[in-house]
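G.,

No rush on this.
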Amino acid sequence: MYCYVDQVQRIKNLMVDLDVVFLVFCSSSTIFRHNIFLFSVTTRAS
């Protein structure tokens, strides 16, 4: 029983890690997209 609980806890921790990685990836790609957009706007303006 303890082994099973330990396993579940590990899986939960892994899922939390994946959530964090996913969040970081999403936010960084959004920032990246904004930078591309700003860059294209500024180059077009000049």
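When you get to it, here's the other one too:
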Amino acid sequence: MDGLGIGCKKIPGNPTRSYRSEAPLKIVGEVKDWGRQTTEDIQTWKEKLANHKGEIIN
């Protein structure tokens, strides 16, 4: 668990703001027909990210 940064004494807490559930999660299925993002969708995401630099959006 050393490589995961869990319980790090130098930087306490959750510096990456990653989500960890309190209970185990159950996998109930698999998406097999996931469509790719369109060029327009990707451009929209890039613009949103560029406009919100430094803000926590989650």
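The first helix runs from residue 39 to 51. The two ends are 25 Å apart (CA to CA).

Enjoy the weekend,
O.
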